[in-house]
Specification:
This protein is α/β, with parallel strands linked by helices. It has a single domain, classed as TIM Barrel. Helices cover about 40% and strands about 15% of the residues. It contains 13 helices and eight strands. The chain has an eight-stranded parallel beta barrel with strand order 1-2-3-4-5-6-7-8, surrounded by nine helices. The chain starts with 7 loop residues before the first strand and ends in a 14-residue tail after the last helix.
Length: about 300
Amino acid sequence: MNGRKKLYIQEVAARDGFQNEKQFIDTHDKIEFINRLSGSGYAKIEATSFTSPKAIPALKDADMVMHEIRRQPGVIYTVLVPNARGAERALACNVDEVNLVMSVSETHNRANLRMTREQSYAQLADVVGAVRGTDTAINVSLSTVFGCPMEGDIAATEVFGLMDRFAQLDVDGITLCDTTGMAYPSQVEEIARQAKTRFPQLELTMHFHNTRGMALANTLSAISVGCDRFDASLGGLGGCPYAPGASGNVCTEDLVHMLELMGYDTGIDLDAILDISGTLPGLIGHDVPSQILKAGPRLTLHPAPVQPA
């Protein structure tokens, strides 16, 4: 033991990031991307989504991706599953975990999933029933926990009510998602503290977006109340189509750079993920909002300017 507090970083670029890209990423490029991530120290990698190819054509190759990647011992490979059919496909690929998603906001859920919250809950309960009893873990990601761009603030009682309903289904973990980048540090601190107190049996993950530049600050607030699992996206890819002006998820390399400087043990090889992040513009056809990729780590030194004679 090195005495440093251990934090668990969970990479979502291959699913949450790639599904938002207009340019289709070649299947073999996806596989190579995930293989490189696997050797970089992540606790968990969200590899793809077993959604209908018509709904998300960017991830139509989910089955092949999961069959062809090289799995690193100790890394959990999770996939998004929307319904029982998706669960069947995921289980056939021997995934380690399924991730189920719905919104706390009724309006956002209808816009994003075209269902009421109750319809979403019923559908996800069917998935839990299909997966429970296997060796595959179940995580539920609750969107718009910290605010909805159509409804505004979300009552914490609504968040905890949904957490309780899923806890009663015996899921393994819950992710609290700042889907639209509306979270702020003191709010995060209060909600995370209550979530950990009320549901100590659940593995709690925090998922922040950097829409208003507060993702790193929100992470520190969550750590202050004992949170230790965080989703992040290489290059800062991803976003929500129902959050006008939104940037993507918190950038993995920016997050790891900050946490390591502060003495936390993320387990991540920063140089390795910077190399991988550097390949993203070629894969997706545009620049990425990574600050560390642009500026380099804090102690990246440069020669002094040559003074004129």
